[in-house]
Design brief:
seven-stranded mixed sheet; pyridoxal phosphate binding; globular; 436 residues; Aspartate Aminotransferase, domain 2; four-stranded antiparallel sheet; alpha/beta
């Protein structure tokens, strides 16, 4: 038993008398690395060696927050330097100003009434997921997620001992789950009904957007309508890419579903990282159903205390009207980048592309180009100087057949990437004969 907890080191210092080393938990050892970070490192190494890299691997805006947001943050820092404030702890749920501005945002954009008391400000959306998952699910509970999907859902849930139920989706459902697919997943274990469903619209990695009716149907299934198994399920709606949309109809929030407030199963999570361009400031929010409010506040107090105070000040300023004009201009740039890729990638051999109605991702089926998208991404970086990520992060079973392009950089990067992929295809597309 002791051998399972400690490992004797007799090699690192060449002495058998070294102290035993404590081992990482089995829980932590089961959490895989985020492969996109490996691509980032390889791209960085190439640049450091003097090579050119066109970055399409990271889902991070290529610009920071608008100047007026920075000015508000700077003014607070200056006030702190003068001793007029400490920028210390806030209450766990966030500042009154920011929570009120989030509530106003829902009224103005979605015509939904949100009580500021139900708003929780978090250390990025990542903290919101951790808090929500601990509050809503026990070890052994079953939670359904789309595959492909954002890998951190699965990794956080599995670290908590929650049973993840992948729901395979593809182009036939616009890479989004449906109530019938949830029914099928629920029936896999009739003794343990699904306790929660996580949906992202617009999604990462596919950029697909659920219609209002599709989103509401998923919410209603969680509320027990059309659900064969007994009881309700929590409906976790990841809306961090809202306002980055390219269709005529804006993305709907789960809070717009009929009787959403009465059913009280929707937990909406959003972030200031994507549309608001505050990635490194680590600030997000969630709209918490009444049944989870007290436990999530207690968890916030114990795990994070509060989101960074200075970041909350910047986040509140990012709702200003003059800021929205700047942020919307970034979305127009993403839209132009998207058009360049949707037109140009097929010329480079990437013919099966997701619809990419929102966010800034395109998910491409490369099964006709490779058996291993990790190898393909490596070859493309080495020969074309274009950094993209393999689908294996997003789908453990079928990800080797897909890659993801991120187009939140400049228009020049999007055009340059297409040109480089077309020009160097003879160098990286070397598996085709073996696959045919």
């Amino acid at each position: 038993r002791a051998g399972a907890l400690f490992t004797m080191s007799d090699a690192s210092h060449g002495a058998s008398s070294d102290l035993a080393r404590a081992a990482a938990s089995l829980r932590a050892s089961r959490v895989p690395a985020f492969r996109v970070m490996e691509v980032m490192k390889a791209a960085h190494d190439r640049e450091r060696a003097g090579g050119r890299v066109l970055h399409m691997e990271v889902g991070q805006p290529s610009v920071g927050p608008p100047p007026s947001v920075l000015e508000k943050a700077k003014a607070s820092l200056d006030a702190c330097a003068r001793g007029e404030t400490t920028l210390g702890y806030t209450v766990a749920d966030g500042t009154d100003e920011l929570r009120a501005r989030v509530a106003t945002h829902y009224r103005e954009r979605y015509d939904v009434s949100v009580d500021p008391e139900s708003v929780m400000i978090t250390t990025g959306s990542s903290a919101a997921f951790v808090l929500a998952f601990i509050a809503a699910f026990d070890a052994g509970d079953r939670v359904a997620i789309a595959a492909p999907g954002y890998p951190c859902y699965r990794n956080i849930l599995e670290a908590l001992g929650v049973c993840v139920v992948p729901v395979p989706v593809d182009a036939s459902t616009n890479f989004q789950p449906t109530p019938s697919l949830l029914e099928r997943a629920d029936a896999l274990d009739p003794t343990k009904p699904i306790k929660g469903v996580i949906v992202a619209s617009p999604s990462n990695p596919t950029g697909t957007v659920l219609s209002r009716d599709e989103l509401f149907a998923l919410h209603d299934w969680c509320a027990g309508k059309g659900k064969t198994s007994p009881g309700k399920a929590w409906f976790v709606s990841d809306e961090i890419y809202h306002q980055i949309e390219y269709g005529d109809e804006r993305a709907a929030t789960a809070l717009e579903a009929p009787n959403a407030l009465e059913e009280d199963v929707a937990l909406v999570i959003n972030s200031f990282s994507k549309y608001h361009c505050l990635t490194g400031w680590r600030v997000g929010w969630c709209i918490v159903p009444s049944g989870l409010k007290q436990p999530m506040t207690a968890l916030q107090q114990n795990l994070f205390i509060n989101a960074p105070h200075i970041s909350q000040i910047a986040a509140a300023a990012s709702f200003d009207d003059d800021v929205a004009k700047i942020l919307d201009a970034h979305v127009e740039r993403y839209k132009r980048n998207r058009a360049v890729l949707l037109e140009g990638l097929p010329r480079a051999g990437f013919e099966k592309l997701s619809s990419a109605g929102g966010a800034y991702y395109i998910y491409a089926d490369v099964s006709h180009l490779t058996k291993d998208s990790v190898v393909l991404c490596k070859r493309i970086l080495e020969t074309a100087g274009v950094a993209i990520v393999p689908g294996s992060d997003f789908d453990r079973e079928r990800g080797s057949r897909f890659v993801r392009f991120s187009f939140c950089g400049s228009l020049e990067t999007a055009r340059g990437a297409v040109e480089a992929l077309v020009a160097t295809r003879h160098k990286w597309d070397v598996e085709r004969d073996a696959l045919e």
